[in-house]
Amino acid sequence: MMKPSWFHLLTGVILFLFLVLLQPPLLSITEFSASPLRFTSDGHFKILQVADMHYANGEATGCLDVLPSQFAGCSDLNTTAFVDRMIAAEQPELIVFTGDNIYGLDCNDSARSLDAAFASAINAKLPWAAVLGNHDQEGNLDRQQVMHHIARMDYTLSKLNPSSTTPRSSLGCCIAQQCNEVDGFGNYNIEIRGVEGSALAEKSVLNLYFLDSGDYSDVPGISGYGWIKLNQQMWFRELSAWLQAAYKSEPAPQNVSAPGLVYFHIPLPEFSEFNSSTMAGVKQESISSPSINSGFFTTMIEAGDVVAAFVGHDHINDFCGEKMGVNLCYAGGFGYHAYGKSGWSRRSRVVLASLGKDANGQWMGVDKITTWKRLDDDSLSTIDRQVLWNYKENEKHRA
Asked: pLDDT value at position 397?
């Protein structure tokens, strides 16, 4: 049999490369992430929050705390079905997963569990973001590896941590040693631009902050859950100040700050200050916050742009309460492999930001932020609709 000559081999290689290069390029993660999120043409931006999926091994993983009639055949696939139903019903612009996305201890392979947990968002080709909880790293991937895997998935806007392109302060440097020494994994932000073609099309009119609230205390003598560390708070303060300054600068300078929403997993100690008369929703278990107060609530107040913070962690709490102008909100437990309360439906939180218009009918900044919860019942019932923030009311308080 005649062996191919070098000429034939070279010709084959060139032909192969030519055919490959002719193929239309797929949208890479980098290209997808570079496309800014923005408000829709009708002036809305909707966020679906999914808390505590506790995903493990799909159909092989059974449910916890459901009615006796629901146990047969109940598995992680019920969690997937709920995500799919919520996407179809609410059609969000962004999905935010606020930790304990997988339950590492029960996962045969953490990477496969992560792929399955976020599959609904990916299949729907929706932008999504995630932070870590206290259980994500308990399988065969450590905390950094889990967040690294998430940050490389399709359609995600999640980041391992602030990059060298993170905005610098007016001093010309990033306070947290050029952002390379921020504690935890999954500290980043997402800017939401105004309506395409509007005066604020290139402005971030809604700022989303994501922080790693840790897992468990690593300080000798201090037990309990982790907390948001000082260098994370320094990074957050610097970023918030930069975003506010940019919003008030040319072009189209604004005289107020764009509202900010913060997402993390473990509730702050301040969540324990609400009761039935000062909150919307229910508190059915104690607040599992860190045993020390690291001061992040004060940091949010001092930043001046945060109007709400959203957490998970305590699955059968789903309330929102307002303290000093900042709403502190639970989503309520979403996942069927997570503990819950028999007969109390799994649920999710939806946030809708709506733009205002000027006297000429042109789109302006955010006018109102509302929220509600959806239950995983036959009709996806909507409960506890409330206004979290209103531009006019905010201006009255400032005055």
From this structure: 61
If you average pLDDT over residues 372-388, what whole number do you get?
A: 98
Q: What are the C-alpha distances in Å from 166 to residues 31, 162, 216, 267, 322?
A: 18, 6, 28, 26, 30
Alpha-carbon dihedral sign for residues 387, 276, 96, 326: positive
Distance CA 219, CA 256 (A): 40
Burial of 342 (0-12, 13-18, 19+ CB in 10 A): exposed
39-74 per-residue burial string, b: 16 or more CB within 10 A, e: under 16: beeebebbbbbbbbbbbbbbeebbbbbbeeeeeeeb
- Tens digits of residue pLDDT in 38-76: 999 999 999 999 999 999 999 999 999 999 999 999 999
- What is the predicted pLDDT for the residue at 372? 98
* C-alpha separations of 68 from 59, 71, 284, 375 in Å: 18, 6, 21, 19
pLDDT of residue 32: 56
Q: How far apart are the C-alpha atoms of 323 and 345, rounded to whole Å?
A: 28
Long-range contacts of 391-399 (CB under 8 A, 24+ apart): 391/256, 391/356, 391/365, 391/366, 391/367, 392/367, 394/307, 394/325, 395/256, 397/325
**247, 257 contact by CB (below 8 A):** yes
Q: Which residue has the higher pLDDT, 22 or 148?
A: 148
Alpha carbons 105 and 337: distance in angstroms, whole number: 12
Give the β-pairing of 188-193 and 128-131: unpaired
Phi, psi of 125, deg, nearest 5:
55, 40
pLDDT bracket for residue 396 (50, 70, 90): low
pTM of the model: 0.90
Q: What phi and psi, each to the nearest 5 degrees, are found at residue 168?
A: -95, 160
Handedness of CA 125, 131, 137, 141 (dihedral sign): positive
